[in-house]
Design a protein that fits this description.
The protein contains 17 helices and 19 strands. The chain is elongated, with a radius of gyration of 30 Å. Helix 6 packs across helix 7, helix 10 crosses helix 13 and helix 11 runs parallel beside helix 13. The protein is an alpha+beta fold. The strands form 4 sheets. Strands 7-11-12-19-18-17-16-15 form an 8-stranded mixed beta sheet, sandwiched between helices. A 5-stranded mixed barrel has the order 1-2-3-6-5. Strands 8-10-9 form a 3-stranded antiparallel beta sheet, with no helix packed on it.
């Protein structure tokens, strides 16, 4: 016997509100009109009318105080004799309204089928619910307690809500419920709404900064026949029209470099990338990345450009470059200030400074042993790892937690990426050090940048070595991309390239502890699993 799964439609709340919906329709009230015109936002009204002299209840009833027209969702409602008070909310701003038994009217279409007509006040008092969207027009006044209030002369039902809002006292506190039902989270938690407004402002400021520096915004494919540009496992799908497997991009890099070859000197793209990887505080399988390339630049110019970018965005959005205080692993209080210039230090020097280790004096075996004995790294990562990766692992485990103030970590081992130029310094080149920097703030990586490799022969050899690793079982190694190497063989100018994790930037500026707090709809496990 199959047991019917109950849905929201079976709930008492839904059925009760459905009955009210029917009653309203019978009373000639259209519960879902097409439009509500010439309205002013609640926030704008609050800003415009901070001081209304002699704007009292009597004046509002008589219509002598300023008249406004606005709309919002009902989040509080209480009846008090011949008046009822409510609070409506829109765009995170709220306004108290008052409906009066003798003066307030509800808009009707005229098509009444009810056997008994309800007064306008009874329709408002008995048939409206928390969660309903309403439009209101009337006159403003201040209550005796000093609260700006709208005396409603005309009320229009804009959308009848058939399900209740979360309890106003508990809001929506369960994190999993918040992420699954972000629409309720935005209604219930003003600070969440403000975080996503901040996200929008940050994206606008980032675009403005790039465009002010003569960069052109472009778009490249999400679906790709090959993938590359990062060490990550891709998501795979199948394109029926061509009967071939496709990949969701793991990076924006390779198509953008083809545009460099084609003559676009300064380009940037902001878009979704997808990596079939774990989920934690700073990782979501679908995330937003900014990548940018500037012909004739190197990583030194990018360090200056990016630190000024982040500082400018912070100043314009937050009004300051100081984003807070943090305590480092040694218990030292640190002020995190994004003002440029930022500290620049090589990866090996950072290990000397913060971990008190000189990797130049350590053998590969000593580094591997130290990692296993002194850190929580998975020992399997150290088995057979090349020297460059062992240095990188020491940095990740021992240095990153100290990087609270902005740090550009420069000059990485070649093994960390196959897409970057070897260092111009002969001694560092001999050590297979590349011109790469990663930027860390508050202990998290924010920026990754290179002096881009534009030698197609060397690029082929590096991708071939990655392909061998892939064939050997490394799921995150880059595959060979002959088409990309061929494009580079037509001549790619020297260039600097940078990637910035937009979600992590929003986390930084909004003081959000996890990436899920800054993504509208983070990936969640299905509820039926």
């Amino acid at each position: 016997m199959t047991v019917k799964q109950e849905t929201y439609r079976d709930s008492t709340d839904y059925q009760t509100r459905l009955s009210k919906l029917s009653d309203l329709e019978e009373q000639g009230v259209d519960p879902y009109p097409h439009v509500f015109e010439e309205m002013e936002g609640i926030g704008a009204i609050g800003q415009r009318f901070t001081d209304l002299k002699d704007a009292d209840y009597a004046g509002a009833m008589e219509g002598t105080t300023p008249r406004v027209r606005t709309a919002g969702r009902v989040i509080l409602f209480r009846a008090m004799g011949k008046n009822c008070f409510a609070t409506i909310q829109h765009h995170g701003k709220s306004l108290q309204i008052l409906c009066n038994r003798d003066t307030s009217a509800i808009v009707r279409s005229g098509d009444t089928t009810a056997s008994e007509s309800l007064t306008d006040f009874k329709c408002i008092e008995k048939k409206l619910d928390l969660g309903d969207y309403i439009g209101v027009e009337g006159n403003l006044f201040f209550t005796q307690k000093g609260e700006l209030t709208l005396f409603v002369k005309e009320l229009t039902l804009l959308s009848k809500a058939l399900l209740p809002l979360p309890d106003k006292h508990n809001k929506l506190s369960d994190k999993e419920a918040r992420y699954r039902k972000r629409h309720l989270d935005l209604i219930s938690n003003h600070e969440v709404f403000d975080t996503f407004l901040l996200r929008s402002r940050v994206l606008r400021e980032v675009r403005n900064y790039f465009e002010d520096h003569q960069f052109v915004e472009v778009e490249t494919p999400v679906l790709q026949q090959n993938y590359g540009g990062a060490n990550a496992r891709p998501f795979t799908t199948h394109l029926n029209a061509l009967n071939q497997d496709m990949f969701l991009r793991i990076s924006l890099e390779l198509p953008l470099k083809k545009l460099l070859v084609g003559g676009f000197d300064r380009i940037f793209e902001i878009g979704k990338v997808f990596r079939n990887e774990g989920i934690d505080k700073t990782h979501n399988p679908e995330f937003t990345m900014l990548e940018s390339y500037a012909a004739f630049w190197d990583y030194h110019q990018l360090m200056e450009f990016t630190e000024n970018l982040i500082a400018t965005v912070a100043q314009n959005v937050l009004g300051t470059t100081v984003i807070g205080q943090m305590t480092n692993p040694d218990g030292v209080e640190v002020t995190v200030d994004l003002k440029a210039p930022w500290k620049r230090i090589s990866m090996k020097d950072s290990i000397r400074e913060y971990a008190k280790l000189d990797v130049d004096g350590m053998s590969d075996e000593q580094m591997a042993h130290y990692l296993i004995e002194q850190t929580e790294i998975n020992p399997n990562k150290t088995k057979g790892a090349p020297r460059g990766m062992l240095i990188s692992y020491l940095f990740e485990e021992l240095v990153e937690p100290y990087l609270l103030e902005p740090h550009h970590i420069t000059d990485h081992p070649l093994e960390t990426t196959p897409l970057c130029k070897l260092h111009r310094d002969k001694e560092l080149r001999a050590e297979k050090i590349i011109e790469r920097f990663e930027t860390f703030v508050c202990g998290n990586e924010l920026i990754n940048a290179y002096s881009e490799l534009n030698d197609s022969v060397q690029q082929y050899e590096l991708l071939a070595s990655q392909e061998r690793l892939k064939q050997g079982g490394d799921d995150e190694a880059c595959p060979m991309d002959e088409e990309f190497v061929e494009a580079m063989a037509h001549g790619m100018p020297p260039a600097g390239g940078v990637g910035i994790g937009i979600d992590r930037l929003i986390m930084l500026l909004s003081h959000s502890p996890t990436i899920r707090e800054v993504i509208f709809f983070p990936l969640m496990k299905r509820e039926d699993q």
